[in-house]
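tmp note - Histidine ammonia-lyase
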Amino acid sequence: MTIFLDGQSLTLTQIKDVARRSARVSLRRSQLLRIRKSRQAVERKLREEIPLYGITTGVGKLATTRISANQAAELQRNIVLSHSTGVGPFLPQDVTRAVVLLRANTLAKGYSGVRAEVIQFLIDLLNHRIHPRVPEVGSVGASGDLAPLAHVALVLIGEGEVEYRGMVRRTQSALKKIALKPLSLAAKEGLSLVNGTQATLGIMTLALLDAERLCDLAELAGAMSVDALRGSPAAFDRRIHAVRPHPGQVRVAKRLSKLLKGSQIRESHRGCKKVQDAYSLRCIPQVHGACRDLVRYVRSVVEAEINSATDNPLVFWEDDEILSGGNFHGEPLALAADALSIALSELASISERRVARLLDASLSGLPPFLTRKSGLHSGFMTAHLTSVAALGENKVLSHPASVDSLPTSGEQEDHVSMSYTAALKAWKIRENLETALAVEFLCAAQALDLLRPLRSSRPLEKAHHAIRNLVPFLDADRPLYRDILAMKNLLREDTLLECL
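out:
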């Protein structure tokens, strides 16, 4: 499979294919003319010796400092070197691949004024699985993700470090292995490589895809818990949701009704004295649905950004103009990432509440902590603590980053988006939600076992079977961290999704 880049048609699915399945990448040949004309416009303006930001001037607060045409190439190299200030842990490999792909795609759009060789170099890194080492800390989402993208750009000039064939290597060493020579950057190319939102976007594309998957899994886990707690599906009746028709709410209610249909457990308590269930069961459509609607909004932002031109200045070669603007500003992504964090945190929050009910014998009617030998054995008591710990971290991380603007670059960049920080928080919250759902699935599966010989619905029994193929029934205490990690790995596969 080969993904062709043209700056206009890249999809979320294709990004996942490149980032996580190592699909090959190629530059669409039809874009070469646009890229060439964009480059020619830069060279033409360079000869006119007029002030052009980052081409014949310094950058940031130094935008009023003139740079002579014969220093243009040196300026571009210096931009890459000076902006390589990232620190901390390095981005995961799949995120790095997404970042490199997205940067190549926006340059391929033909508004950045770079040579085709620059785009092809980024593509070669992907196809040869040479991954720049990009530190997590350093971007404020102002003139784009300057520091993270500079660490990518370092590789193009033979500097920095990469991961290649499972080893960390000096860039020059890795490039020699594939006979790829470093580039000498021409006017504007260094600026075009570092100026954009693609580091934030790389994190967000994969976080979004995972979030959509987790929304589905949260509904499956919720349905298992409802049945295990002998809850009523009446709250999911389509008539209730038709009179409050939020799209996510209607969708979740419909799915829960389908998942619970035909359960023997449900039939065993039909006509009981309980009038209605606790909110964490009864209000799953309202809570999960609202989270789904937020995730849908995030998708609309991300899809618009994927094929956008986000560097500065932009080269409108058709009009023979190079215009300075602010497409690098990460505010759309910052707000979307904060929204994603809140949505995923809420899913973890309501999941933890269902776990608490499953473990409380006075609420569930099941053995305490889901073990028949409570006292001598603790069952899932401290697995609940793991869920609560993840939820507690999420509550801190859900504070919006987008409202915490701090001026940089001598007040030139006097309002920054903090989009990169917002994306990193969403990425961590996504992982914590995985943990919370893993605990809920383990507890719900255990509860269904304790209700035997009664059977749940066909789809929920299928999910239970998938879990039991991986994690055995908890008959006596054992180190549950292994079960939780195994369950998290199962959540990343398609097995449980096939039960929906």
